[in-house]
Automatic annotation (TrEMBL):
InterPro entries: ClpP/crotonase-like_dom_sf, Enoyl-CoA_hyd/isom_CS, Enoyl-CoA_hydra/iso, Enoyl-CoA_hydra_C. Could possibly oxidize fatty acids using specific components. CDD domains: crotonase-like. It comes from Dichotomicrobium thermohalophilum. SUPFAM superfamilies: ClpP/crotonase. It catalyses: a 4-saturated-(3S)-3-hydroxyacyl-CoA = a (3E)-enoyl-CoA + H2O; a (3S)-3-hydroxyacyl-CoA = a (2E)-enoyl-CoA + H2O. It is an enzyme of class 4 (lyase). This is enoyl-CoA hydratase. PROSITE patterns: ENOYL_COA_HYDRATASE. Its EC number is 4.2.1.17.
Length: 257
């Protein structure tokens, strides 16, 4: 498959997607989001891929939706065509997706990173929702996912003023799972993805589903669903293997990868 706006590679059992519009700091345009969706579809259907990493450049993960492409749009068409309604493809990915963020992750770029399962950041990362400075508001989940991630106070301040968070503040606030030294970010994201891809895939996918349920469900419904998923894993050969390996003091060799 050929791509114009992204670079797609396989690193063993890890699918790597590099956003690649350097002339606009990886501004997210329609073509890029369609290609990102195609690359995710391809990795989802490839049995050998166990985890996906999305990254950008040193300077920018993505500086937001492409303002120049968006500038001339008018309300009836944005509504009729459900503009950016297809941008949430990442959230429907059943395999885990890691965002590796260096530089700017602004507007739609911050929203795309937050759609991933977790964010690894380099010390240069800057997160923000500057849409308000353009006379609009975030439209790809920023007001919702940022609030879930960092709480109302910070999310509200960021969405109302457009101020950025640096990597340290983002880590303290819980937006970022960990900061990784600059230059090492993508390799560390791939190492982390390899570790995940080496686990039992049904367990990985159920863990992902269950953590995500915490954003959507009540505690009672979420814990009940978690327990049912937990029970179902006792039907897998990998549960037998994982526990036998522990008892025999060896590494597990999971079958369902
Ligand atoms: N859309 C289109 N082009 C963009 C862009 C964007 N979001 N961000 C940067 N670019 C382009 C610039 O226009 C510039 O192109 P030219 O050389 O042709 O002029 C090039 O990328 C480099 O950018 P700068 O010269 O501005 O670089 P800088 O280092 O001085 O500033 C920046 C970097 C602070 C990120 C600045 O580019 C900026 O503020 N970008 C816009 C950020 C933004 O507002 N994002 C939100 C977009 S709206 C959105 O995302 C809606 C949504 O919720 C889905």
């Amino acid at each position: 498959m050929t791509y114009e706006t992204i670079i797609v590679e396989k690193r063993g059992r890890v699918g790597l997607i590099v956003l690649n519009r350097p002339e606009s700091l990886n501004a997210l345009n329609e073509a890029m989001m369609v290609e990102l969706g195609r690359a995710l579809d391809a990795f989802e259907s490839e049995a050998n891929i166990g985890c996906i990493v999305i990254t950008g450049s040193e300077r920018a993960f993505a500086a937001g939706a492409d303002i120049k492409e968006m500038q001339g749009k008018v309300f009836p068409a944005t509504y009729r065509d459900d503009f950016i309604g297809n941008w949430d493809r990442v959230t429907r990915t059943r395999k885990p997706v890691i965002a590796a963020v260096s530089g700017y992750a602004l507007g739609g770029g911050c929203e795309l990173a937050m759609m991933c399962d977790f964010i690894l950041a380099s010390p240069t990362a800057k997160f923000g929702q500057p849409e308000i400075t353009l006379g609009i508001i975030p439209g790809a989940g920023g007001t919702q996912r940022l609030t879930h991630a960092v709480g109302k106070a910070k999310a509200m301040e960021m969405c109302l003023t457009g101020r950025n968070m640096d990597a340290e503040e983002a880590e303290r606030a819980g937006l970022v799972s960990r900061i990784v030294a600059s230059g090492d970010l993508v390799e560390e994201a791939i190492r982390t993805a390899e570790k995940i891809a080496d686990m039992s895939m049904p367990a990985v996918m159920m863990a992902k589903e269950s953590v995500n349920n915490a954003q959507e469900m009540s505690l009672t419904a979420g814990t009940r669903t978690e327990r049912r998923l937990f029970h179902s894993l006792f039907a897998t050969a990998d549960q037998k293997e994982g526990m036998a390996a522990f008892a025999e003091k060896r590494s597990p060799q999971f079958k369902h990868k």
